[in-house]
């Protein structure tokens, strides 16, 4: 059964990536209204009489989301049943289903009633959380054979806090990036990394869209620098743990690629393939941070257990 769970978790994770890319494709091709204001029907029909490009993109995204949703539910049920004794499994099983349903409902609400750009921008962040929950469930299943050295890993409290903060900040940066797309601010700055005339001091002349674009670039730049700093700390402190060593090399590589693709979006004038890679890389980056958050919670639990044990010993000594 474990072998089947591994395969199912890989399929579910890959499917979640397809949902993320499909949602990004819908947004970037302006296909959100491809089926009008009908959901789950398309233009009020099960099978539309006429098809447009936008309609095909929207219908494909809905179809993939429906199929992957079934796979995720199956994975959650089987994981709960077979490896529910692992501390995080039940929580992630519930979360993977609940957030996926929430993601679908927000998408449906946007189709039927419309939403402001600031509300729609939150959709991708929720999609990231949905992906991360399935991704973590997959990693937990692959941890069962104990080929990774996670059992001996203890992450210090100061590093745990920084990992939590970096992960939350990443969601903020993702939100600003989604806001760039939804407000159509992608190409309002002709240069990179600064806007138009190449001067970092020209912000007093920015319009609303340029403020959004440059705000995202600033937030993304800080994320890149913060990741480098934390990478150095983690490698220096936990270099003997393969999961941390290679995990943070992957994480740093991903954030570097994210900066590269962000710049290439401007230089290629919003090339669709580059834009989709931009969405894919940040999803994988957040997935890696989520795994380090999971490892951090284990260390926090170990800290609590040790503190409780020490307190009990102190009470015994007093008596």
What are the key terms here?
319 residues; 2 domains; 9 helices
Question: What does it look like?
Answer:
The protein has 319 residues and is mainly α. The chain has two domains: 146 residues, no CATH class; 172 residues. α3 runs antiparallel to α5 and α6 runs antiparallel to α7. The longest helix has 47 residues. The protein starts with a helix and ends with a helix. The model has no long low-confidence stretch (mean pLDDT 86).
Short description, anyone?
This protein is mainly alpha-helical and 319 residues long.
The largest sheet is:
none
Query: Which structural class is indicated by helix and strand composition?
Result: mainly alpha
Q: Uncertain spans, ≥5 residues at pLDDT below 50?
A: none
How many structural units, i.e. domains? 2
In angstroms, what is the radius of gyration? Answer: 22 Å
Shape annotation: globular
Order of helices and strands: HHHHHHHHH
Strand content: under 5%
Report how far apart the termini are.
51 Å
Mean pLDDT: 86
Supply the number of helical segments: 9
Specify the helix fraction band.
Answer: over 70%
Number of strands: 0
């Amino acid at each position: 059964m474990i072998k089947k769970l591994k395969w199912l978790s890989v399929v579910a994770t890959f499917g979640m990536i397809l949902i993320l890319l499909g949602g990004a494709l819908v947004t970037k091709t302006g296909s959100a209204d491809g089926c009008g204001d009908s959901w789950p029907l398309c233009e009020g029909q099960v099978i539309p009489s006429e098809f447009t490009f936008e309609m095909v993109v929207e219908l494909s995204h809905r179809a993939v989301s429906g199929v992957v949703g079934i796979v995720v539910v199956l994975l959650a049920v089987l994981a709960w049943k077979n490896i529910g004794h692992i501390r995080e499994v039940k929580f992630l099983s519930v979360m993977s289903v609940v957030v996926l349903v929430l993601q679908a409902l927000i998408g449906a609400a946007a189709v039927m009633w419309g939403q402001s750009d600031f509300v729609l921008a939150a959709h991708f962040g929720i999609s990231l959380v949905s992906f991360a929950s399935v991704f973590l469930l997959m990693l937990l299943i692959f941890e069962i054979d104990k080929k990774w050295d996670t059992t001996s890993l203890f992450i210090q409290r100061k590093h745990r806090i920084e990992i939590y903060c970096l992960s939350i900040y990443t969601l903020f940066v993702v939100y600003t990036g989604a806001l760039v797309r939804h407000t159509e601010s992608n190409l309002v700055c002709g240069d990179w990394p600064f806007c138009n005339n190449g001067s970092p001091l020209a912000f007093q002349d920015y319009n609303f869209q340029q403020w959004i674009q440059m705000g995202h670039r600033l937030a993304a730049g800080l994320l890149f620098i913060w990741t480098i700093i934390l990478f150095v700390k983690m490698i220096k402190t936990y270099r003997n743990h393969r999961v941390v060593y290679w995990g943070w090399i992957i994480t740093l590589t991903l954030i570097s690629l994210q900066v590269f693709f962000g710049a290439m979006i401007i230089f290629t004038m919003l090339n669709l393939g580059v834009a989709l890679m931009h969405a894919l890389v940040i999803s994988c980056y957040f997935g890696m941070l989520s795994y380090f958050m999971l490892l951090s919670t284990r260390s926090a639990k170990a800290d609590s257990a040790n503190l409780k044990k020490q307190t009990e010993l102190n009470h015994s000594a007093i008596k």
